[in-house]
């Protein structure tokens, strides 16, 4: 049985760990090391000199992004088998900027949506990590839809209607002794698809 990455998700909230993972080669290594491999295997697969590869692996190991699984003796040498410490790494949006996003109460402001999304990423990633440590499942849900608005004013009318519908539904299910859930609804223009050709 292959020992895969130990955690499903890890939040990168420290700038030093984020810098360690940012280069394209290191991102490739973290993806490949979801299943264990040695530097020799990686050098052959990625066609990268061992010396260069070892430098990047040591950097990732110091940052706690990869870990030693086992050591094997081969032809008089010790071969180190490494794997990523998580299957996926999520960047805490707060580390991308020195200042926190401004708290804006305007629900139509892009800055407000970015702050809410950043808070959601941070909170869910931390709770998911906590659930993994205790061997439990974090119960979440998401709802997505695409809609085409004929006029900019329709965005406001739609938002008001959705807000009222959500308030009615929340009132129907809300119980004083129940577990609290945060519902986040946001919308943004659909990005244009870019060709990979």
Question: Can you put this structure into words, describing what you see?
Answer:
- The chain has 2 domains: 7-90, Arc Repressor Mutant, subunit A; 92-173, no CATH class.
- It is built from 6 helices and 5 strands, in the order E-H-H-E-H-H-E-E-E-H-H.
- The chain has helices at residues 15-21, 24-32, 39-46, 50-62, 110-134, 152-173; strands at residues 7-12, 37-38, 66-74, 77-84, 86-91.
Q: Please, what is the CATH homologous superfamily of the largest domain?
A: Winged helix-like DNA-binding domain superfamily/Winged helix DNA-binding domain
The CATH class of the largest domain is Mainly Alpha
Overall radius of gyration: 22 Å
Q: List the domain count as a whole number.
A: 2
| Overall geometry | elongated
Tally of helical segments = 6
The strand line-up of the biggest sheet is 2-4-3
> How many E-type strands?
5
Binned strand content: 15-25%
Helix- and strand-based class?
Answer: alpha+beta
Termini Cα gap: 39 Å
Can you tell me the CATH architecture of the largest domain?
Orthogonal Bundle
Main features:
Arc Repressor Mutant, subunit A; alpha+beta; 197 residues; 3-stranded antiparallel sheet; two-stranded parallel ribbon; elongated; 2 domains; disordered N terminus
Question: Summed up, what is this model?
Answer:
It contains six helices and five strands; from the N terminus they run βααβααβββαα. The protein is α+β, with helices and mostly antiparallel strands and 197 residues long.
